[in-house]
Structure formats: structure tokens, C-alpha cells
User: Fold these one by one.
Assistant:
Number 1:
Amino acid sequence: MVTNSRFIRACRGEPHDTVPVWFMRQAGRYQPTYRALRSRYRMLDLARSPNLIRDVTISPVRELGVDAAILFSDIMIPLTAMGVNFDIQENVGPVVFEPIRGGADVRRLSRFVPELVDYVFEGVRLSVAALEDVPLIGFSGAPFTLASYLVEGGPSRTYRWTKDLLWNDRSAFDALLEGLAEMVVQYLTLQAKAGASALQIFDSWVGALSAEDYREAVWPVMCRIFAKLQPLNMPLIYFGVGTQHLLEDMGSTGATVIGVDWRIPMAHARKLLGPQLALMGNLDPQRLVSGRAATRAGAHLIMKSMQNDTRYIFNLGHGVPKETDPAVLKDLVRWIHAWGRQGDDGE
Ligand code: CP3
């Protein structure tokens, strides 16, 4: 476990030399090196090979100079160890072949068998060895976001079937989230034992819920997960998209770092969440596609509003778009580091 890095120190609110920065989806199709690999392997084949997991995981650290690596994998991977059949389709996302639509389908899910995804933990070990003093972030999808793929069968805008299950078959909904929560705890604990230094839970689509539904049906599950992870004594990051109306509740789950999307000013998130939590975010990822000037202008606003905040980590409000020019990202990392050291425009 790496503890003396600026990323981990910022997560804990300890003094550090400059603002740490990493990016969600920092490994992916915007990288020429990743596209070259993808011309030879399918995404899921990459994610099942420990050596390739390592190579892809460490590549943004080498190419961009970011302060943390995130395990290269996908939120769907551990579901293979619960008996779920799915594919990841380019420009679509995960597609589940037999969606879960009721209690009988939920009972069809097996308990999580970690041995079936040993390649993930081996990928963590190999990545950690190659990264030396750069921390590795392990991750999992959150129960609600995973359930949304399992129930809808793929990406959705309305979450028709997931909400239907919540409102019309609550015991099946609860059983599904509970089974997934048990997996999340085991899966993240094993990533930590394999050498990860921080853990992130992606609840990307939880913003689709009303504040009341979140509080009642999802928040208690998240509280139980974070309580079980707390003994690992490492930063626990909780991230979702479109979560303005949920932030305060997300902040009281036991997570120690909250990932904020780009719609809400970072300083406003700080007011809502109070001084104790670390915050991570929140540049509109689309700025990257619009080039260096648009990227720096957005970053400037965020850095100005967060200067002197010792529990702040720069990131995007969501993942790196595939149309991003790597040079823009590389420039951004240098610029954030320089600003964090000197204030103002850095250079
Ligand atoms: O952040 C990182 O760099 C780590 C790697 C990572 C991937 N997926 C790699 C990936 C992480 C953390 C994820 C998590 C993930 N996967 C989430 C939560 C984070 C988020 O983005 O909200 C979600 C919702 C998924 C589901 C998923 N998998 C989607 C929507 C897609 C994109 C489909 C597409 O082609 O646009 C994937 C595939 C995926 N996961 C890719 C990568 C690099 C692209 C695969 C490829 O074609 O090579």
C-alpha cells in the first residue's frame, strides 16, 4: 500500500506539495497505444489477461504523468463470477443477455466466486509492482448501477424496468442489491489485499433516482458497504453522475472521498458536504474535446474556487471522451501541478 503520495495525502487531508490529478477512463480509446492493442484483442480479452491489464493500467501514468493509476477493467467483470452472461459492445456498453426482471431471476444469480476472476487480482498485483510509488485505485460498480445493467439488459435513459422492480417488487429489488453489495465488499477487499491503495465505487447512474428513492432504497446499502470496507483503512471514493440532489446523502454513507460531476460548482459541493470529506472533480469532460484553451479555461475556474482546499483532488466530472487529443490531457496535468505549486496561472 502506497501512503506517502500526494493523491493519498490529499484524500486524508494531510499536507502535500501540489494538487493531485488523475482522470476517470484515463486508459481507453483516446490513447493510440490502447487502440493499437484493441486492434488485436477484444475489450473483454484485454480485461482477462493480467499482463495486458498491467500494461494498460500503467500506461496513463507513463504517458500523462497522473498521480494515480486506476485498475483497467470494467464494472461488469465481477458479474461473470455470479453467473451473468454479457458482452461489451463498442459505442453501446454492456449488454446482458438474460435481463433480471423479477424474484425468480434474482435467485438465479449465484453467490460471488472470487476465484473465477483471479485474473483481476493478479492484474492488481502486477500493476502495483510496476507502478512502484504511484498508488493504484481499485474499483467496483455500485449495486444500483450494476443492477440497472442487469435489469435493463443494457444502457437505458429511463431505467424503466429497474424502477419498476423498485416500486412493484421491492423484495426482489432489495435481494438483488444485497447480493451485489456482498460481491462489492469481497471484490474490493481482495483488490486491497492484492495491493490497491484506494478504492472507488462507481454509481454512475444513481442520479436517475429521486432523492427520496435514493435515501430509502440505496443509501442504507451503501452505508453497509462502506462500513465493511472501513477496516481496510484506505481512501474510499464514491462517484456518481447527475447527483446534485443526492450529494449530502452520498456524503453520509461512510465514503471518505466524493466524486462530483461537472454540473455543480465544486465550491458548492464543498458547502453541501462540509470540511471533513475529500472532494474529487469536476471538469466537464467535453472541454477536452474542444481543445487546450477550453480545457484550461474550465480548469482555471475550478482551481480558483478550490485553492487552499487541502482535501481536493482534480479529476473530470466523468470519463475521458474517446475523441480527446492526448496532448490536451498531458498539458492539463502539467498545468494543474504548476498551478497547485504556485497558485494563479501556474506558468
Ligand atoms: O477509468 C479507467 O480508466 C479504468 C477503466 C474502466 C473502464 N470501465 C474501462 C472501459 C472503468 C473504471 C470502467 C467502469 C465502467 N464501465 C463504468 C463506470 C464508470 C463510468 O464511466 O460511468 C460504466 C458505466 C461502465 C460500462 C461501460 N463499459 C461503458 C458505458 C462502456 C463504453 C462503451 C463504448 O464503447 O463507448 C464500457 C466499455 C469500456 N470500459 C471501455 C473501456 C476502456 C471501452 C472499451 C473498448 O471498446 O475498448
Number 2:
Amino acid sequence: MKPLAIFGGTFDPIHLGHLCVAWEASELLDAEVLMMPSGIPPHRPPPIASAQQRVAMLRAALRGQSRLILDARELTRSGPSYTVDTMIELRAEQGERPLVLLLGADAFAGLPGWHGWRRLFELAHIGVLSRPGEQAVLPDVLQREISGRRVAGPAELRTLPAGKLVELSVTPMEISSTRIRELIAAGREPCYQLPAGLFDDPQLLAPYRR
Ligand code: ATP
């Protein structure tokens, strides 16, 4: 069965790094990718742009293709956006279909800080996306949890609904939302780091301007 992949983030704003790695993951896994903005991210300061503004940017960014699909379910839940709750919901919806939670290497290294993190392996496979500047020194608890879970390639994820770990080697894109927010606040226009659609409506990037 074709897997379904999930790529969560604050997307404050969505940038070409997100899109490029999500697209490549979609190709490598032969899967659609749900792009899932988090409402109240539990592990970091609140986003600058509102949920509505981040959704508007995602809509503009995802126009014209059908592999990367906006899923805004976390924005309608009250309280912190725990990934484990989302994966429980998706598992109930998708039956035995393989689910692949995509995490950048930085996010993966921080996984043991997430609420209910061990449960994630019962609910989904994890696909770790390489990210420039992230030398994965994994905490011991995470090393222990993943020992025996690594598979050689994405094809092996199709035979089971959850529980494996695959490293997806994607084109290095040294782009971050933090840097983009800094540039825009300084009056710059980082046009080749952001999807072109974000410049069509001047309101979309307004939250980051000073
Ligand atoms: P910020 O700078 O605000 O922390 P970010 O650029 O890291 O933002 P997020 O929305 O926090 O973006 O990231 C969502 C997911 O995308 C995370 O799993 C993160 O590791 C991954 N990610 C973001 N940018 C890249 C990139 N350039 N290459 C690979 N993975 C990335």
C-alpha cells in the first residue's frame, strides 16, 4: 500500500527548504505528503504569524501541484498541538496504511522532548530528512529507541504500518524561517528563499515587517 507522509511545522513562514525536502520525500516514498501547520507549538515560542496567516501562506505556496496537501486539523484543536494526538487520529482514519512522519534532522534529534514520543513509533514510521548544519548527535534514549528500527530504504516501509526509521537523503537547502524573519524585519526581500506566490499578495509577509 502506498504510504501517507506527514510533514508538520510552524511554517512561520513556509520556505523553499520545506517545499524542496517535502517534495523529494514524496518522490522517494512515492507518497502524498500532508503539510500540517501546528497551532500552539508545545516545544517553542509562539509563531509570529497567526494560524490564519500561516494557512494563507501555505495555500499560496502549494498552488499548482497535488503531491503536497494542506491539512490544517491541528489549528482547529484547542490546547497544544501534540503530534502524537494527530497521529492517533490519522491512524484511526487510515487503517493499516503505512504512515511516515517526516522530521528534519534537527527536529528528530529533539524528539525525546516531545509529549508521548515513544508512542509515535507504534503509530507511524519516521523519515528523517537531512538538513545542512545538523550533525546528528542523538541523545542516548533516542539511540536506544531506534536501534533495530532502521531500514535501508523507503521501499521497506510499505510492508508495515509503523515502527521503522528511514533516513531520506534530500538536497541540502540551507534555508530557515528564523533567517527569513530576520531578513524581512531588516527591510530585505528574500525572494529566492520563499515560494514566488508569497510575494503576489503584499499582506502575506506583512507579519514579519517592522
Ligand atoms: P525556524 O527557523 O522558525 O525554527 P524552520 O525553518 O526550522 O523554522 P519549521 O517550520 O520549524 O521550519 O520546520 C518544520 C520541519 O521542517 C522540521 O521538521 C524541520 O526540521 C524541517 N525543516 C525546515 N527547514 C528545513 C530544511 N532547510 N531542510 C530540511 N528540513 C527542514
